[in-house]
Amino acid sequence: MNGTRLSVNPSNDPEFSRRVHELAGNIATPEELELLLRREYPPARVFRGVTDIVERWYVYRDGRWTRSPDET
């Protein structure tokens, strides 16, 4: 996962974020990360986003973006 940035949602779940970063360090594709996450978080989804500067993986615990209670 060299050079790839992760955007984890929801942002207020430190355990999920920790697990995402832990698993992502050992894999090469968002599809692999999604398969591993779904063992613990069945609705999890991972999508690849690419800009001209950096590749970003969007990681959704609930399968889609959700607003964190602390976001306004």
Write up what this structure looks like.
This protein is of the alpha+beta class and 72 residues long. The protein has one domain (5-60). 26% of the residues lie in helices and 24% in strands. It is built from two helices and three strands. The chain has a three-stranded mixed sheet, with helices on one face. Helix 1 packs across helix 2 (30-37). The longest helix has 11 residues, at 14-24. The mean pLDDT is 90.
Helix and strand pattern: EHHEE
Number of helices: 2
Query: What's the domain count?
Result: 1
Oligomeric grouping of the chains: single chain
Q: Which word captures the global form?
A: globular
Largest beta-sheet details: 3 strands, mixed
| Strand segment tally | 3
Strand order of the largest sheet: 1-3-2
Cα-atom radius of gyration: 12 Å
Q: Overall mean pLDDT score?
A: 90
* Alpha-beta content class: alpha+beta
Distance linking N and C termini:
32 Å
Strand content: 15-25%
